[in-house]
Amino acid sequence: MEIIIKADAQEASLEAAALIARQLRVKPESVLGLATGSTPLRLYERLCAMAEAGAIDPSQATAFNLDEYVGLPGTHPQSYAAFMQAHLFERFKVARWHIPNGMSADIARHCAQYEEAIREAGGIDLQLLGLGSDGHIGFNEPGSSLASRTRLKTLTARTVADNALHFASPEEVPRHVITMGVGTILDAQACLVLAFGEQKARAVAAMAEGPVSASCPASALQMHPVCTLIVDEPAAALLERRDYYRWVYENKPDWQRP
């Protein structure tokens, strides 16, 4: 795992955008796995600006989203479909975009079909992830199988409380989601994880330097051959080897830089 520490979330997001831009330049028909939430907002704004300026061309790319609430139609303002349209796809126009259908009448079948759609697309080339304060990725909460596939999950009370900021009241937050599994995520050719703020410091340390455990699902990424974790200074505060990570980044050969 490569760990890149930047001064703040803005610098970290620019670094992440450069990595995604490189992916699209090397392989214009890339399959991207995408995340929602506040963490990637600066990144998405940068990607939109780059696309509009002609610096990158996403028109041949395919995108798969990590997750969606169960019970919310894509037209609901708090659905992840609406989020992605508003913050990315209205300006960053990919050829194809897939997101789990939270209104499916047969969720188990739909999840199997979503897995098949990823396989038919050739697999995910680059998977973008945010890191939950409890170590979750996607909506794979602590205790999730590290071999799990796309499925229905019940959210923890902590995640419901975190997500309540986006709803009129905690009671309106859906209790269930469809999410790619940890095993699905690990199948990606490369993973890119973002984490910002001191509230993520414990999760960052557990993910990068703790034991591989279902108690911190993100720790499974220690086993991934190509995983990049980009954090700001507050999120890096509890990393024991942060000086080493800075040294490695500063001394990378030019051909490894985006």
Distance between the termini: 17 Å
What's the domain count? 1
CATH class: Alpha Beta
Q: How large is the count of helical segments?
A: 8
Strand order of the largest sheet: 1-10-9-6-2-3-5
Characterize the main sheet.
7 strands, parallel
Q: Kindly state the mean pLDDT as a whole number?
A: 96
- Beta-strand content estimate: 15-25%
Query: What structural class should be given to the helix and strand makeup?
Result: alpha/beta
In brief, what are we looking at here?
The protein has about 260 residues and is of the alpha/beta class.
What are the salient characteristics of this protein?
8 helices, seven-stranded parallel β-sheet, 258 residues, three-stranded antiparallel β-sheet, Rossmann fold
Characterization of the model:
The protein has one domain (2-252): Rossmann fold. The chain has helices at residues 9-26, 41-52, 80-89, 107-120, 157-163, 182-186, 201-209, 242-250, and strands at 2-6, 31-34, 62-65, 67-69, 96-98, 126-130, 151-154, 176-179, 190-195, 227-232. It has a 7-stranded parallel beta sheet with strand order 1-10-9-6-2-3-5, sandwiched between helices. A 3-stranded antiparallel beta sheet has the order 4-8-7. The chain has 258 residues and is of the alpha/beta class. Helix 1 (9-26) packs across helix 2 (41-52). It is globular and about 55 Å long. It is built from 8 helices and 10 strands.
Describe the SSE topology.
Elements (H helix, E strand, L loop, with lengths): L1 E5 L2 H18 L4 E4 L6 H12 L9 E4 L1 E3 L10 H10 L6 E3 L8 H14 L5 E5 L20 E4 L2 H7 L12 E4 L2 H5 L3 E6 L5 H9 L17 E6 L9 H9 L8
Parallel strand pairs: 1-10, 2-3, 2-6, 3-5, 6-9, 9-10
Antiparallel strand pairs: 4-8, 7-8
